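Cross-check.
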Amino acid sequence: MPRKPARHPRVGSEVGMGAHVLPDEDPKAFSELKASLIEELSPQTALERILANDIINVVWDIDRHRRLTAATIRTAFIEQAEGAFVNGKPGRAASLYSNDGRDLFLERLRSSDDNKRAKAEAILDRKSVSKAEITAAAFISRESPVAYHEARIADLERRRRHLMNEYVHLQEKRIARDAQTAVRLIETKSGEVV
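Predicted model, tokenized:
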């Protein structure tokens, strides 16, 4: 019995649109980015739509690595601040006990409430530890993962520029081809009139 040919989604279809979104990411943010870039790029042909989707995915990956870098540093910042709370200087604190107000300090430091964060930061000020010192220690403690994400961002930025150059070249060829077709059409019509 002959096999049925495989059906592939239409180029530019929304099938698999969320495939590039990881579980911790916002599908709505991806959809908004995609809609914005599709509107800006205005792909007209199948190949332009493919390149536009490649560009969208690369831009999303760049943003992802930036988010991951920030999350890595935020986590390390909390660890280093905990060390400052316990030891009076940035560094990872021993997690053997938690009866010294550490939990409340960390809760306040993580809070989105400015007043709660200010209370935690005041404790750091009393211990003569600046947020800049803690941030520096956080970067040092996560040097390898941060370097990895920064290298990925640099590679992805090169890829984005390459894809954009290809896209612009493809659009220029289409526009020139469309202009030639319009000229031929005008010449044909003017020939009929005469």
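The CA atoms of residues 69 and 145 lie 8 Å apart. Residues 26-193 form one domain. Passed to J.P. for a second look.
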